[in-house]
Amino acid sequence: MDLSVIVAILGVIAAFLGTGVGYWFGRRSELAVAEWMREVRSWASKVINILSQASYGTQTKESEPPEQARWARELSALIEIGRFYLPNQRQDVYGMDKPLALPRISPRRPRPSCCCSQCY
Question: Which alpha helices (H) appear in 3-93, and where do they start and end?
């Protein structure tokens, strides 16, 4: 057999392997996107449910402060979860002017084990 025939056969085999691997990675990517969409839809369903409860409860004035606090807590948690699903695309531009979520602990704050008035 000629060397060019062997190289051609190896090229065809490499092309088929490349096509198979590309197809496999493509399907894997499609499955990952489908799973992400399922999770985002589930999250959105929870958000819509809490928003509708809060909207109905505030319009009918039948809600009590504990219910309103629960809605606020759940919405706050769902908003934070949504930031994991839908992060800012340009993180170096958006939100740079906002303060940090957790303030730095200053040395003048009272320690949990301390009960004296000098720490305040």
Answer: 3-60, 65-85
Let me know if 80 is exposed, middle or buried by CB neighbors in 10 A (0-12, 13-18, 19+).
exposed
Looking at residue 117, what DSSP letter applies? Answer: G
Q: What is the pTM of this model?
A: 0.52
* Neighbour count for residue 37 (Cβ, 10 Å): 11
Q: What is the dihedral of CA 108, 113, 118, 120, to 10 degrees?
A: 50
Give the mean pLDDT per block of 10 residues along the chain (120 residues): 80 81 77 85 90 81 76 87 78 66 52 52
In this predicted structure, what is the pLDDT of residue 120?
42
- Asked whether 62 and 53 are in contact (CB, 8 A), the reply is no
Contacts of 40 (CB under 8 A, 6+ apart): 85, 86
Q: Which residue has the tokens 């092309």?
A: 15
Which residues, other chains included, contact 102 with Cβ-Cβ below 8 Å and sequence gap of 6+? none
| Opening angle at CA 119, ends 115 and 120, nearest 5 | 100
